[in-house]
Amino acid sequence: MFGYRVPAPDQAMLISGGRRGQGGAPFRVVTGHGKFVLPIFRKVRFLTLAMCESEVAETCVTRQGIALTVRAVIAFKVGNDTESVVNAGQRFLSEQDQMAVLTGRIFAGHLRSIIGSMTVEEIVTERQKLATEVLETSKTEMAKIGLIVDSLQIQSIDDGETGYIEAMSAPHKAAIQRQAQIAQAQATQASVEAQQEAARNQAEYTRQTAIVQAEYSAEVDRAQAHAAQAGPLAQAHAQQEVLAAQTELAQRAAQLRQQELVAEVVKPAEAEAERIRLLAMAEAERMKIQAEAAASHDRVALDRMLIDQLPQIVKEASAGLANANVNVLNGTDGLGEIAAGLVGQGLTILDSVRRNLGTPDGENANADKNGGSGTANGHSGRVEIE
């Protein structure tokens, strides 16, 4: 809009003409907002509020009379308050670059004054103290011209060719070098000790390795010897087991052959002998019965018929015995028991027939039968017929 002026954020707008400013200033100060300005009747100028920098390189003499070249950097600006703006505007509005020049000169004078009261050792070791004292002494003077200092940095201190600072640092350098040499010697010693320790460890490792290898070789040799013996031992053991098996097989074959011979030769012969003996006994019994029958006139015909049938019964029994599988558990006594049993059975049959017919002779025959049966049953032998 025509006549409306606005200063930048880092500027102060100074309006001259018309009413005077605050405190009798020849202009009004406007910051942070705009204002209508009548053309021709009012004049507007702008003063920077931005940060400025000034460098100082001044040769100063210390309290010891040693010349030092001090380089410093000052960061400053116009104060934000109206009074500072008015003071700076009245001094630097037309030539604002002169703020840096004047600031440098002011600080150069204060540096010379303060360094003249200090020793080189204090200046070198207490730079922050030097900067603080320079700031404190220049604050009032800088405020009069509307400027404030944000920081002061001492960049370098040089004694030229005098070599005082270098000589001052010589003991420290010597101490540092001595410490460095000691550290180097200690490091060398530690390195040598480490190498020796490594050599000892290597030797110990070599020894342990040799021992392990020797033990391993011995173990391998023992295993190989054991393996070499294992084959013949296993073969001998196998042959021994084969011989034992063959011996057992031969014994079983002999036992089997013996049993076969008993079954094929002995038992048939014994059975045949027993059959013959039974026939003889039956024949004798028949003759005895014939004799007894001859004494009885009433039952002659019946007795003769029974007598005639008795050999046939015994023969059939003996024939069955010959064809049977007889296991004789007590030898010849067992065969006798078989024969006696057969004869007893024949007599029992005869006696039963006589009792049924009411013949008194049946009692005698029954008595004979009981006697024969008792005799047969009195034997302690055991016979099994299948």
TrEMBL record:
GO cellular component: plasma membrane
Domain Band: 2-172
Predominant location category: membrane
UniProtKB keywords: Membrane
SMART domains: PHB
Positions of region (Disordered): 358-386
InterPro entries with a match to the protein in the record: Band_7, Band_7/SPFH_dom_sf, Flotillin_C, Flotillin_fam
Gene3D superfamilies reported for this sequence: Band 7 domain (3.30.479.30)
Gene Ontology process terms (BP): protein localization to plasma membrane
Subcellular location field: Membrane
PANTHER family reported in the protein's UniProt record: FLOTILLIN-1-RELATED, FLOTILLIN-RELATED
Family listed: Belongs to the band 7/mec-2 family. Flotillin subfamily.
Name of the molecule in the record: Flotillin
UniProt organism field: Streptomyces lydicus
